[in-house]
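Predicting holo structure, adenosine-5'-triphosphate bound.
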Amino acid sequence: MLCIEARSLSKSYGNVAAVDSIDLSVESGKIFGFLGPNGAGKTTTIKLLTTLIPSSGGTVNILGIDASQDPLAVRKRIGVVLQQPSYEPTLTVEKSLEKYGMMWDVDARTRRRRVEELLSAFDLQDIRKKKNDDISIGQRRRVQVAREFMHDMDLLFLDEPTVGLDPSARRGLLDYIKGKVRDGLTIFFTTHILEEAEYLCDEIAIINRGKIIAVDSPDELKNKFGREKTIKIRVGNVQNISDMLQGAGSYEISCDEGTVITIHSADSEQVLVKILQVLNSNNVTVEDLSVVPTSLEEIFLTVVKNSDTGTLGEP
Amino acid sequence: MHPIFRLVNRNLTISLNMGFVIWQVIFPVIYIFVAGFAYTALIHNVPFGSKNLDYPAFIASGMIGFNIMNSTLISGIIIWNDRRHGMFEQILVGPFTRAQYILSNVYTIGIIGLFSAGLITAIGYPLFFKSVAFNVFTVPLVVFASITGAILFGSIASIISTRLKSSEGFNVIINTVFLFFAFVSTAFYPAQGAPPVLATAFYLNPLTYLVDVVRAGIFGNFTDTVGYEMVVLVAAAVVLFGIATKLLSRLEI
Ligand SMILES: Nc1ncnc2c1ncn2[C@@H]1O[C@H](COP(=O)(O)OP(=O)(O)OP(=O)(O)O)[C@@H](O)[C@H]1O
Ligand SMILES: [Mg+2]
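Done. Tokens:
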């Protein structure tokens, strides 16, 4: 079943097309990653999908509900952690969780149970009696994310939830989210940390200048855009290694102080064989060799760069 | 529970902290007792309709209107704080409509206004009990005036909340409005005997109307003038509430 279905969704601010006729399909029970550079339109898309702002065109269907027909019915079934911080400065951490549950009409017993659960899961026990005004920014972000789990929902939007979190809090949050997804929750997630997206997401869309420029699973994205691999070869100190390798094919090559050879190439296997032959015939001993697959980060950079220069599609 | 009541519950929880209650009690008590008795030496009696009030009774009754204004300006700040701390967007992306958010603020302001009026009536009662004329007509009048006044001042604070962007600007404006309303009114001194310019300025101030109506209710002195003042109060509240609602419903996210 499709949990989110958007067709030709657009939003303009004056002349700026913040979101430019995008199509999105997100299946239930999945974690959908939404990536893109600053100002690409991620937050605007989330605001449109969560009915916070009206669109300039297109349709949105959330959990089978037409969002323009019944926005309140949509909002009752989703959770949203916005990019912008939000908190009640005068309430303590535990009270703000409790009151948030009350606002969502969660019964008092369930509220009490969830407050305890979340205080532990988000490592907030030590600061539970502190006011939101008196805690650190990262702690406040943790409260804001934890708070959203006070109520039941079928779909959760997270706009850069891990910003400002330390590595262990970040990993804790990602694993908490994974657990919730196993229990049936669907997640729409934005981040600038690509390892996070890789660790978490079943599917990834990349948006740039309001347009979606790639959608696929992380592995498929790598297959499509990341055939280029990096080979690093460490050899003993040899003179003129660049000259030596000159004839071995057309590829990007750099030699670091004549000891480490770095090669970028799409057909890495063939290139590697040739280079090893050359090195062998020159009696150069290979001390270490590694092949690094392209990271999601490099794919992101490639795809965005291609879209900026107008060479859409595969590199 | 109905969504509006859930929002009211939340509004009251964030507003009624210890600081607010102390401010609501200590400040008027100081005024009523310290200023009330200090000025008695200067102002012996204030003629009020057919009665002659002593100054502490006059100021205690004036403080009811003052406290309604004070508390509702503060609770009108809910909207300002919600915008500043991101809760405005968070609530609107939750299981609520904008109309429910607006109405919840009106109810909150009404409740806080009544609470303040009740509090000061209780504190001031020993001072004006000799002259009070509570009956089936005057008590509803005081309650009605309190709620109308609360909505009026709550709307003013809401309008300011929606128009401003910086905290400094907000504080300066709220304080200026507050000072003008508080001291250019009949809350602390009667219009009779004041210099004519000041007496006219008193009647450009909604607090004067609120205070006069509340006093008329407490001391059972309902004249034609008070009737007109009631009409002005209601009209001003309706107009300002309309403007506040319009601005709030258009507020960009
Ligand atoms: N309220 C607004 N008024 C005018 N322009 C806006 C508004 N909100 C966003 N924009 C513009 O729309 C575009 C998309 O902004 P958006 O906030 O969606 O980006 P984003 O992908 O979330 O970026 P970031 O990674 O920095 O959070 C930007 O060019 C931004 O300047
Ligand atoms: Mg954003």
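Chain A has a mean pLDDT of 89.
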